[in-house]
From TrEMBL:
It comes from metagenome. This is Type I phosphodiesterase/nucleotide pyrophosphatase. It holds the Pfam family Phosphodiest. PANTHER family: SULFATASE, SULFATASE N-TERMINAL DOMAIN-CONTAINING PROTEIN. InterPro entries: Alkaline_phosphatase_core_sf, GAG_Ulvan_Degrading_Sulfatases, Phosphodiest/P_Trfase. Transmembrane segments: none annotated.
């Protein structure tokens, strides 16, 4: 069931196999269409890929929360200690496509949490969309419009009789990584009544997606569902483990057991749900690729802050279910379950396991949002699209709007403000996008709390407009900024990207207690681990591999040639 390619896609994946006799010494230049073979022998060349994303897995979490299975993967495989994300926006909805396409945001079709449809690919030209609310067909349309293949397409070409499947409890994460996959499984809305109370208030979620197998959905007649099906979970907002009434978690509280696995062993939800779906496919299908994205750590990190989230927990939030230690433990156990399953099925020696994250994070010690119940999205977003509006900005964003000529906080009264996203960076889209208007917006942005540098877009790059004095930066912060900030902001320089960017100081957030989105080292440093067939145990290459390099590196290890240019480059795996 491979994806039908659009007529505009001028690449032939079917011809993309590298002969096994090609010398391992050949390393093509970045942007070429020949992938480097690995140093592994032909017998050790992987025939399958398991791609695991532990959302918001800051590298320090691995030791801080004693993630034993992740540590074992790193010790038994190749881990890149100097890895970093290498792009903005450092967001789930962006990174899941970067790492499975080899394309930077400026070339992949969308670049941030807001998407300005400059070319009218999805509808009217210049319409705004919240990218995290887009549908699977909309993501697929943006990918097809740019004409590049993804991991699933390459696997289909080499193994046409096997399936590729993608799983994740957060739908937009799964959508962004899964273009081309045959089976795509995520949670649907609250449309089931699985607790037998026969009320009209249906609060349970079940599996939806593309070609979701019946052994996962099971026979269901909505709104009822099988009591013994663990793929249906309670998503009632009253099931929040104290997060709805406790600061700072109340900014982005739990609503049932979708994001974080709950205590009901029959209907756990969360990362366990995602892994259960993958294991079910492994039991029933001949597969070449499994793509899993797990969001438990991300949810806990946003709510409580990350490394600071240790017992004793605050009054009202004592239940450990929602906290980092539990979320990390559950995620870690799922990594172990997947590797154990590969070994039990006799497939570990022919599988390349990739483990990474879509961004790291920082703890918002300096917080410029409003701390209140369900304020998360209102802190993060300002603007409106056809079916969503976020028009209650925090005080600093109110100052930005006023500086852009706004007299109120509606699309008709907010001056030259079109939309804005603010988390560990501020990104703003304007109505009038002349160079003069962008410079003026960057100047206003430079006066906001925590801002250390502002940039405005000029074609395919950003121009530094203002930078805080050197004394405003710590030594480490300054070194990272000088080495990487310009590189990172340039990665989202496209017409659909923001017109103006403000980079923030370390440990500064506008959205939630734990945040990401920007260019800080704590947000950008990520784990990238390769394990399995032909991979040397304990290797720690010094190369500064980025997320965009993951796909070309996978293709090189599988001896599959690129059929389209990529921004990423392949790293040889020892």
């Amino acid at each position: 069931m491979p994806r039908k390619l659009s007529t505009g896609a001028r690449w032939l994946v079917a011809a993309a196999l590298i002969p096994l006799g090609v010398s391992a010494a050949l390393m093509p230049a970045q942007g070429s269409t020949s992938a480097p073979p690995t140093e592994a022998t032909a017998s050790a060349t992987p025939q399958r890929v398991v791609f695991i994303v532990l959302d918001q897995l800051r590298p320090e979490f691995i030791d801080a929360f004693d993630m034993q299975h992740v540590k074992a993967l790193m010790a038994g495989g190749t881990s890149f200690p100097n890895a970093y994300l290498g792009h903005m926006a450092s967001e789930t909805v962006v990174s899941h496509n970067v790492m499975t396409s080899g394309m930077l945001p400026k070339h992949m079709g969308w670049a941030d949490e807001w998407f300005r449809d400059t070319d009218g690919v999805l509808g009217a030209p210049n319409a705004m969309y919240v990218s995290g609310s887009m549908s699977q067909p909309q993501f697929d349309t943006l990918v097809d419009d740019k004409g590049y293949p993804k991991l699933a397409d390459y696997l289909h070409a080499k193994y046409p009789d096997r399936i590729v499947a993608s799983f994740g409890q957060k739908n937009y994460a799964m959508y962004a990584m899964s273009t081309g996959a045959d089976i795509r499984v995520t949670f649907g809305g609250r449309s089931f009544d699985c607790d037998g109370d026969t009320t009209a208030d249906n609060t349970w979620r079940g599996p939806v997606g593309i070609n979701v197998p019946t052994y996962i959905t099971q026979p269901v007649v909505a709104p009822t569902c099988p009591a013994d099906s663990h793929f249906y979970v309670d998503a009632d907002s009253i099931v929040n483990y104290g997060t709805l009434s406790t600061s700072p978690a109340w900014n982005y509280p739990l609503q049932g057991n979708r994001d974080i696995s709950g205590p009901d062993v029959n209907h756990p939800g969360g990362d366990i749900w995602t892994t259960d779906a993958a294991l079910a496919v492994m039991d029933n299908e001949d597969w070449s690729g499994l793509l899993l994205t797990m969001g438990g750590i991300d949810k806990a990190g946003h709510m409580w802050g990350g490394l600071n989230d240790v017992a004793p927990y605050p009054p009202g939030g004592e239940d450990p279910t929602s906290h980092m230690a539990n979320a990390a433990r559950v995620a870690d156990e799922q990594v172990g379950r997947i590797v154990d399953k590969l070994e039990a099925d006799g497939l570990l020696d022919e599988t390349l396991v990739v483990l990474t994250t879509d961004h790291a994070q920082l703890t918002g010690e300096d917080f410029y949002g409003i701390d209140g119940v369900n304020r998360g999205n209102l802190n993060w977003y300002y603007g409106a699209d056809a079916d969503e509006s976020y028009l209650s900005p925090s005080p600093e964003i109110q100052r930005l709007i006023t500086g852009l000529g706004g007299t109120g906080f509606t699309p008709a009264t907010d001056g030259n403000m079109r939309a804005s996203m603010q988390d560990s960076a501020i990104r703003t889209w304007l109505d009038v996008t002349t160079t003069k208007a962008k410079k003026q917006a960057a100047d206003v942005m430079s006066t906001l709390g925590g801002v250390r540098a502002t940039y405005y877009r000029s074609g395919g790059s950003y121009v530094l407009r203002w930078q805080a004095p050197r004394s405003s930066f710590s030594a480490a912060e300054w070194a990272w900024h000088r080495a990487h900030s310009q590189e990172i902001v340039n990665t989202e320089a496209a017409g659909y990207g923001p017109d103006v960017i403000g980079l923030l100081a370390d440990n500064t957030s506008y959205g939630a207690k734990g945040d990401h989105g920007g260019a800080q080292e704590s947000v950008q440093r990520i784990p990238i681990v390769f394990y399995g067939a032909g991979i040397k145990a304990g290797a720690k290459p010094t190369g500064a591999i980025r997320s965009v390099d993951i796909l070309p590196t996978i293709l090189g290890d599988l001896r599959i040639a690129k059929t389209h240019w990529m921004d990423g480059k392949a790293y040889r795996l020892p």
